[in-house]
Design brief:
- The protein is mainly alpha-helical.
- The protein contains 57 helices and 2 strands.
- The chain has a two-stranded antiparallel ribbon.
- Helix 48 runs parallel beside helix 50.
- It is flat, with a radius of gyration of 43 Å.
Length: 1424
């Protein structure tokens, strides 16, 4: 206390943060004064944790400074009597660090010197519109202010002038709410008037549209406001507790009264800010309460020790009394803190954690998470934990995420785990559900971490642990990485169980036991995943024996489809194990130790049968030497570990891929050396299992083959070639063939071993030729010869190998080799096999399909050998002739099988033939004979064109495939409906128990069968969709290349929206082609033909009941309407289709629907009639780009069509509402054009009209224009006297008049009665066949409504006019308008002639600018 630095530092801190004086002074002057001060006071006040920074807005006056500096002396005695001096004593050591404050002081000075960047409260107030009259608010906003000193100075003021200080604190909260109102000390302490005062404040804020308040403001000055506010509150509460003011003053009472009242305000800024303040105060109270609890515990231990000493006669009574008094004082503080904490929880938290604003809910949940950590003894209880559990189901992602984060530290506090059991059991299912299926990735990752902490206390069931472990194969990489730590714990438990009875195992046994535990877990999880997906026939884990697998692959049904899909999927497919290896690479040691994996896989684990008890059986066979029962592998486990080995080697290479070249080469060479020795043994061990050998065949692709030459191991390299070739020739699995070909391709890339490679590849070709000829040996006429099942299987495998090999290597010479005519060439043999396709044998499907693939690839390879020379040599001419001959023979078969009418081709062959037919025509298309630089392509000399008849057949094939796929989708939907019915039956509460018991077996069997179907339908439906889209994309590619005419694209467009998003993407390509044809190539007639055909076919599906409603067709017309224009920036039209074609689309479709309507009208088919009239709704999007004269043409054609159909568009019937909407859209085009011309003539009205050209018309403007034209168009089709609509006619009958949407409430022009010329119209019902007079065509266009407000008003008039029978009289007197009058000079309303209501019916009609000729009354609907 006597050393000089401490008082000087304390004085400087006090002087630099004087926040309660109104005037402002420069920082330099302030520091001078503080340095010159010599008073030795306030050393007992808690020191700030970070050095003070001078504040520009802090004020200094001499008298106030002297007064404030002396205040700590007056507080000292009271602090001692309150026994609150104990805790501050602990802070004395910080005074020793006073010299260290010099560095931050220098830093503080630099901040102040930054002239323009210095904090300016006046400028902040101007920018934020928040008053700068509150020093506490200014200090929080000021990033350079010392908040500890601010808090201490506030407590000094609280001691001197409690009312004024508490008023300053309340004003701080008001400013944080964006409110500029103020209160005095009396108002702050008038607790009964708080609600009335807040009502007055909120009334003022309601006048502002969007008041800015710091917590949500994007202004840079408020960027750190939330953090500074939290820090200030924490320092204020902590300092108040240290000095005793928290317990002796009215600070908490005032805060609670104001904050709790504000937290229930209807104003969001008040509610949000008050909630944040309350939560921060509660957080600070938790820290104080936790410290007091520790102090109470310490005092209790001291008292207990004193009692023991007293019992032994060593203690004194004075010490015990002192401790008793101290304990009583601590109890009082604990009681007070408990009341404070309870008040904030009950008054704020329990109401605001379910607030409508998700930000407020998130604040509450985040705060309670802090309370769990800071004061676990009080808050880690089911009464508080349940609030977090309830918001786990919140609809807002941020709230759910905060709830999960609040639980992250809960389970780390093991002392309180007993109080968490109830909460855990109650909300554990929800947590598991969130981990497996939440829509937000961050939430899933956080929940997985919480569940891992829960599992650390053994609170998860085995089933729940397995569900979490299955996330190891999740599609999201972050989820896989997050669950890896959880899987690590499960794996370690498995290792411990295996080593439990092993005595003292060696290090190698421990490593292999870890690998065994990993294999067991992976097999278990793969089986569970297969069970969930319903995939029991083919899984990545290999959990079935070879017999079942082989049978499944050769059988028909799902397995055969999968084989076909496997041919479509790329070879570099990543299985489950690859994902698991990436996720577990750093978590599980056994995964990253590829050498240990390789060692254990080389051992013979087959001495004991895989289905026996591996531990209990004795080891008597010599083969078992070195194989411990702890880590003996089953066959299925070996298959899984082979996949893990491949993934581990790949990951090990990837780890060093971006590092230094030498390191990468070293790792690769180490891997290669180990595999050179081990790979032959792996081939021998797994060559009989096609699933495991497929994984072994991937290993050579990971090796550096050049090392064979460097190590002079050519014999080993030759042996490797032989092993790969042997597997390629001996297996029939497409996966084995693909992996073997990848290995062969990698072997061929080893240039230093090219001699060996050339020899071996020729040997492979010779072996393939020998196998092919041996398979057909003795068959004179292959086309009709009978083959056994084994022969068919052999030929199918040979053709598959040839297809795989030909897809990688040019085999044209091999295909045509016939040894000078001594034997049949491979081309001839395979062509003969293709001839068998017309027989339609299901067993030969794969053989014929692969044979077609081989010959197609042969033609493609020959096409690659063409040259573009204009003067070809004789050899080139002969080459071209051979190509044409072979291609012609193949195309003949392809046409016959794909779209022929005579052959009995099965579906798989037909699909393959169709794809190959279009692929060849795309390759040799006559529409694409020039290169990008204008030169001829080599294929130009042998160009192909598809005949029109064949094109039509191809379109027919596509149509059939579409219908077949649509039926498949309907069947799947039917299965879902049956399951729904079953669930409804089970959920019925009023069913008799006896009936349920009787129905149980039947319903149970049916449900079981449907569940089984659902399990398999997910993958099967995906495979079906893959095959379907493959065919569609082939057809689309042919259209895009010009091989098939674009007019056949209507087949795809007609089913837009019906078959899923993938199909819709294909349909959009047709629209792009049409846009190019219509506007770039001037082929508008093609656009008309395709669009009209597509729309007709699409709506025929609706009329025939194949599609539920017109939604798909409406989406189609919206899509194809983009064919009429090409838009540029800001929706400006760059190019437009000729208007005659746009009109032609409308007239053709109107004529078509008119004939349909006539038929339905004559047959009195009301249901079909309603559907037919709905077609007008579909036509509206096609009117988006028409012009005025086009609209008149279309309207005239529509009237003619309706007259020919002998029907009339009713003005009131709901049935004809689509037709009236269509007419309304036509009328809007005319009205807009006239309004546009009027706006050009009268510039004063241009801004009022708000009219843009139709070229730049937005969707919102289109909707307004539809409303705009409603009145005139409906009256043009109406044949009855006009009625003046009054306000009493608001209540319309929905049965006779369509209910219009309630318009938005806006400030609208005053109602006016406009005199318009009368139009003499005969009554509608008496003259249905009267055609409109041409001269009356302007009646299509109502008066040009210039504002959207008028559009809404006109809608209201239309609704009343459609119900004439509800009008109390023919011409009712309108009521006075309640709307604001608008002056004639107002640019927002057009000039209108106002006349008395009484003279409306007496004045004769006079000419007017309004062509609709009627009386309009505007009124405004009030939205309730």
């Amino acid at each position: 206390m006597s050393d000089s630095p401490a008082p000087r530092r304390s004085q400087r801190e006090k002087k630099t943060t004087k926040p309660f004086v109104s005037t402002s002074a420069p920082s330099k002057r302030k520091r001078k004064r503080s340095d010159s001060g010599s008073e030795d006071d306030a050393p007992d006040v808690s020191e700030p944790e970070d050095p003070p920074v001078p504040s520009d807005d802090s004020s200094d006056e001499g008298d106030d400074e002297e007064e404030n500096q002396k205040t700590p002396k007056a507080r000292k005695p009271r602090a001692k009597t309150a026994k609150a001096k104990g805790p501050p004593v602990a802070k004395k050591p910080r005074i020793v660090k006073a010299p260290a404050a010099s560095k931050p002081t220098a830093k503080r000075g630099r901040k102040v010197k930054e002239g323009d960047d210095a904090f300016d409260a006046t400028r902040v107030a101007k920018d934020t519109k928040i008053s700068a009259d509150n020093p506490l608010f200014n200090a929080i906003v000021n990033p350079s202010a010392a908040l500890q000193s601010t808090a201490e100075d506030f407590l000094e003021s609280l001691d001197q002038t409690p009312g004024a200080a508490q008023a300053e604190l309340v004003i701080l909260i008001l400013r944080a709410c964006g409110c500029n109102d103020s209160i005095d000390g009396d108002e702050a302490l008038d607790y009964d008037g708080v609600v009335d005062a807040l009502d007055n404040f909120t009334e003022g804020l309601k006048q502002e549209d969007s008041p800015v308040y710091p917590l949500t403001s994007k202004l840079p000055v408020f960027k750190k406001f939330r953090k500074s506010l939290s820090e200030f509150i924490e320092r204020l509460i902590t300092s108040a507790a240290d000095l005793g003011a928290l317990y002796t003053s009215d600070l908490m009472a005032t805060l609670q009264t104001w904050v709790i009242a504000m937290s229930s305000s209807q104003i969001r800024s008040f509610r949000h800010t008050a909630t944040v303040v309350a939560l921060e105060v509660e957080t600070a109270l938790c820290e104080v309460a936790a410290a007091v609890d520790k102090e109470a515990e310490m005092v209790g231990r001291q008292r207990e020790g004193e009692r023991k000493r007293k019992g032994s006669g060593k203690g004194g009574g004075a010490r015990e009394k002192e401790l008793e008094a101290k304990a009583q004082e601590v109890r009082k503080r604990r009681t007070a803190l408990a009341e404070f904490i309870k008040e904030f929880v009950d008054g704020v938290f329990v109401h605001r954690y379910r607030d409508l604003d998700p930000n407020i809910r998130a604040e509450c949940v985040r705060a309670i998470g802090l309370w769990f950590k800071k004061y676990p003894g009080h808050f880690l209880d089911a009464a508080y934990l349940r609030y977090v559990g309830w918001v786990l189901s919140d609809s807002t992602t941020q709230v759910r995420l905060e709830a999960v984060r609040s639980l992250s530290g809960v389970y780390e506090q093991g002392d309180y785990i007993g109080s968490l059991n109830h909460f855990t059991e109650r909300f554990k299912p929800r947590l598991v559900e969130m981990a497996t299926g939440d829509t937000e990735l961050s939430v899933r990752v956080a929940v997985i971490q919480v569940l891992a902490a829960i599992d650390g206390h053994a609170l998860l069931e085995d089933e729940e642990r397995e569900r979490l472990c299955l996330l190891l194969f999740d599609e999201e990489a972050k989820v896989r990485r997050a669950v890896s730590q959880f899987v690590q714990g499960v794996w370690e438990e498995g290792v411990e169980e295996r080593l439990a009875g092993a005595g003292k195992p060696s290090q190698k046994d421990k490593e292999r036991a870890g690998i065994k535990a990993l294999a067991v877990l992976l097999v278990k999880w793969c089986k569970a995943l297969d069970h969930l997906s319903g995939d029991h026939e083919e899984s990545d884990s290999g959990d079935m024996d070879d017999t079942e697998h082989t049978t499944g692959e050769s059988s028909s049904g799902p397995a055969s489809r999968r084989k076909e899909v496997a041919a479509l999927v790329a070879m570099e497919q990543r299985g489950r194990m690859a994902l698991a290896v990436e996720a577990l690479w750093e978590a599980v040691e056994s995964v990253s130790d590829w050498e240990a994996l390789l060692d254990i896989l080389l051992l013979d684990h087959s001495a004991i049968g895989g289905d026996g008890d591996e531990v209990s059986r004795p080891r008597t066979n010599g083969k078992e030497r070195g194989v411990n029962e702890i880590w003996r592998l089953e066959e299925v486990e070996e298959g899984v570990l082979l996949e893990v080995l491949v993934g581990a080697i790949r990951r090990a290479k990837a780890e060093v891929a971006g590092s230094k070249k030498g390191e990468e080469e070293t790792v690769t060479n180490d891997i290669t050396r180990a595999l050179i020795k081990s790979l032959p043994r792996l081939f021998i061990k797994h060559q009989t299992d096609q699933r495991r050998i497929a994984e072994v065949l991937l290993i050579p692709t990971l090796m550096n083959l050049e090392l064979y030459m460097e190590m002079r191991m050519i014999a080993a390299y030759t042996s490797l070639w032989d092993d790969v070739t042997k597997q390629f020739l001996s297996h029939s699995s497409l996966t084995v063939h693909t992996h073997a070909m990848a290995a062969i391709r990698h072997l061929m890339e080893a240039t230093s071993l090219s001699n060996t490679n050339s020899t071996k590849i020729l040997e492979l070709e010779d072996e393939m030729s020998l196998c092919l000829r041996d398979a057909v040996a003795g068959k004179d006429e292959i086309e009709v010869a009978s083959f056994s099942e084994d022969e068919v299987t052999t030929l199918a495998a040979i053709c598959t190998r040839l297809a795989v090999l030909t897809g990688t290597r040019d085999m044209t010479a091999w295909m045509e080799e016939n040894e000078g005519g001594k034997q049949s060439s491979a081309w001839e043999i395979i062509s003969a096999l293709i001839e068998r396709g017309r027989l339609g044998y299901k067993e030969e499907e794969t053989m014929v399909e692969q044979a077609l693939h081989v010959l197609t690839l042969h033609i493609i390879w020959k096409g690659k050998g063409l040259t573009a020379d204009n003067d070809p040599s004789p050899d080139e001419i002969r080459f071209r002739e051979t190509l044409k001959t072979q291609r012609g023979a193949l195309l003949e078969k392809l046409v016959e099988y794909a779209v022929g009418t005579q052959s009995n081709t099965i579906d798989g062959v037909k699909r393959a033939a169709f794809k190959h037919l279009l692929d060849l025509h795309v390759l040799f298309s006559s529409a694409q004979t020039l290169d990008a630089d204008g030169s001829l392509l080599p294929t130009a000399s042998v160009a192909l064109s598809l005949e029109d008849e064949i094109q039509c057949r191809c379109a027919g094939y596509i149509q059939a495939e579409i219908e077949r796929y649509a039926d498949t989708l309907e069947e799947e939907d039917g299965v879902d409906d049956v399951d729904q019915q079953d669930s409804d039956e089970d959920d019925g509460s009023n069913a008799d128990e006896t009936e349920r018991a009787q129905k149980a077996p039947k319903n149970g069997n049916r449900k079981k069968s449907h569940q089984q179907e659902n399990k398999t339908s997910a993958r099967e439906s995906l495979e079906k969709e893959y095959l379907f889209i493959d065919v569609m994309s082939t057809f689309l590619r042919a259209i895009r290349a010009g091989a098939i005419d674009i007019r056949h694209g209507a087949v795809l467009l007609a089913h837009y929206g019906r078959l899923g998003p993938s199909f819709d993407v294909c349909s959009k390509v047709i629209v792009d082609v049409l846009r190019e044809e219509g506007m770039m190539n001037d082929r508008g007639e093609i656009v008309v033909a395709v669009l009209t055909q597509a729309v007709r076919e699409a709506y025929t599906l609706v009329l025939d009941g194949l599609v539920q409603d017109e939604g798909n067709c409406l989406s189609l017309t919206k899509l194809v309407s983009t064919c009429f224009v090409i838009r540029g920036s800001q929706l400006s039209i760059v190019r437009r289709l000729d208007s005659q074609f746009v009109v032609q689309v409308q007239t053709v479709l109107l004529t078509w629907i008119g004939k349909r309507i006539a038929v339905y009208e004559s047959n009195k088919n009301k249901k079909s009639m309603k559907l037919a009239v709905t077609f007008f709704k579909v036509l509206i999007p096609l009117l988006s780009t028409i012009q005025s004269r086009d609209a008149l043409k279309i309207k005239a054609h529509m009237d003619q069509v309706m007259a020919q159909a002998r029907v009339e568009v009713s003005a009131t019937s709901r049935l004809w509402e689509p037709a009236r909407a269509y007419e309304k859209r036509l009328s809007s085009v005319t009205s807009k054009e006239k309004s546009q011309s009027g706006a050009r003539k009268t510039p004063g009205k241009k801004r009022t009209a708000g009219i843009s050209t139709e070229d730049e018309e937005s969707e919102a403007e289109k909707a307004d224009s539809v409303k705009e034209a409603d009145v005139g168009l409906r009256r043009s089709s109406r044949n009855r006297p006009r009625n003046v609509v009054t306000d009493n006619e608001d209540e319309g009958d929905d049965s006779t008049s369509p209910k219009l949407a309630t318009p938005n409430t806006r400030v609208r022009p005053k109602a006016a009665y406009r005199v318009k010329p009368a139009v003499v119209i005969a009554s509608g019902p008496q003259s249905p066949n009267v055609e409109p007079v041409p001269s009356a065509s302007p009646s299509l266009s109502p008066a040009p409504s210039t504002t959207p407000e008028e559009n809404d008003q006109e809608e209201d008039v239309q609704e009343e006019e459609e119900n004439p029978q509800e009008s109390p009289q023919e011409f009712a007197t309108p009521k006075a308008s309640r709307k604001r009058a608008r002056s004639q000079s107002d640019p927002g309303s057009p000039m209108e002639t106002e006349i008395p209501a009484a003279s409306i019916t007496e004045q004769p009609p006079e000419p007017s600018d309004n062509p609709t000729g009627e009386i309009q009354i505007r009124r405004k609907r009030v939205r309730h």
